[in-house]
Amino acid sequence: MLKLGVLDQSPVGPDGNAAAALARTVELARLADRLGYTRFWVSEHHNTRSLAGASPEVLLSAVGAHTKRIRIGSGGVLLPHYSPYKVAENFRVLEGLYPGRIDLGIGRAPGGMPLVSRALRSGLPPGSDERLPESLLELAAYLEMGKPLAPDHPLYGLEATPRVDTAPDVWLLGSSGHSAALAARLGAGFSFAHFINGGGGHDAVRYYRRHFRPGPFGTRPRLSVCVYVLCADTDALAEREARTNDLRLLLNEKGEFRRPYPTPEEAAVYPYTEGDRARMAENRKRMIVGGPDRVRRALLAFADSYGVDEVLVACSMSDGRLRLRSYEWLAALFR
Predict the structure, then answer these.
(1) What is the pLDDT of residue 270?
(2) pLDDT digits (tens, 9 = 90+) for 27-45
(3) Where are the beta strands (DSSP E) in the chain?
(4) What residue ranges of the chain have pLDDT lower than 70?
(5) How far lies 199's CA from each of 37, 43, 203, 282, 299, in Å?
């Protein structure tokens, strides 16, 4: 049976209440734990009013406190912005709190506009994401997964604390082949972000399978794919909600990050151009939309096309109650 995980982006509803969005993330985590989802990941986004998840490490502390079984993790920490040492310590703390349940998902995207990168990288040179392979090896050393830092390294002898008995499971997340190649070389899991890029994922996954070698982050390949799924009681209701996500993605592409999540009414009257409609049609490749029967068939075909047995689903909807209902439907379909 197909396994399902959750990627939650903490969407802020049309009311603009970010505190309520974070509370809904915790509520959804409790539900996912109860319904048997495999894992629950939270995302990192900055300088946007439509998504509240700016600090996955902090949010995971709350998620872990309200769940018992489900694996919890970052989808993902944007390592190029941060010190590998600090990331290692954050996730050692999480492992100490919730041993054996932590996934450290790592991304290389900026997570916002250039001003975000400038603010987060205070003191770091532009283009420091080119050091990602070196940063990953440094992270592995601090997590005691790889070789210790060499004696000639300026931080030789440094330990990441607290000292705990378990370590997080490390995944690289990506929407292209770059992260797939890194994951294969370093023994990390790889999760393709189909919800970001509706094309190219099959090639990235094939590359990872063919080139995987045991490394500091693991000895066996681990694969998943993440996709937007909007499941409702009927095809028509799902389509109504999908149009709000159509508009949200379109506005993001236009650089309008600071607008709240659109309502179905706003989506219905927005003055779309022909170019807008073409972009929306392209973005639909990133979504599975429909009532239960249609979604079940589509998800099975989607997983089969990638050859994976686990799919992470992101149910992005303007109505929080319908979003929970979507996850309930999915759990029932693949129980």
Answers:
(1) 96
(2) 999 999 999 999 999 999 9
(3) 3-8, 39-42, 71-74, 77-78, 102-107, 169-174, 189-193, 223-231, 287-290, 310-314
(4) 110-113, 123-129
(5) 26, 21, 9, 10, 16
pTM of the model: 0.95
Q: Which of 310, 287, 306, 304 is CA-nearest to residue 232?
A: 287
User: Does the CA dihedral 21-26-29-31 come out positive or negative?
Assistant: negative
According to DSSP, the β-strands at 310-314 and 102-107 are unpaired
User: What are phi and psi for residue 64, nearest 5 degrees?
Assistant: -65, -35
Nearest to 330 by CA among 245, 224, 231: 231
Phi first, then psi, for residue 177 (nearest 5°) are: -80, -10
d(CA 283, CA 278): 9
Phi and psi at 312, nearest 5°, equal -90, 135
**Which 3 state secondary structure label does DSSP give 11?**
strand
